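Problem 12. The chain below contains 129 residues. Write out its predicted structure in token notation.
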Amino acid sequence: MRAKMSLLGFDAEAVKPLNEEAAAELGAELLGEATIFLAAGTCLVLEYWRQKTQQRRKKRARQVAWEAMREDVDRLALELEALTTRMRAMPQLSALEELQAQIQEVRAQLCIPDGDRPAAPPTGPGSED
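Solution.
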């Protein structure tokens, strides 16, 4: 009771001693409040710990996802480089296409259909030399 009175700002010396029943009731109330306070404090600490653990998991998941995206970007950069190299080799292919177009023009001038090949010149008796 003296501690309670001094916390409230009253003179603690002026408190009369309590009888046994009132002291037991006040002690039980104090013990109950302390138990509730301890349980609430424990819940708060456990919730704080749970939240921190969850934040660490999320952060780790983000890091793993970020690393996976980086690896994908690196892989795609290598593929792009390979495709660029192949595209640089394409002018040789276009030269081949130009030759094919020229062959078709020559065939058209000789009146040879595209699918047919020129017949072999006759090589036997009666062929013109």
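Discussion. The chain has a mean pLDDT of 81. Students who got a different answer should revisit the alignment rule from Section 12.3.
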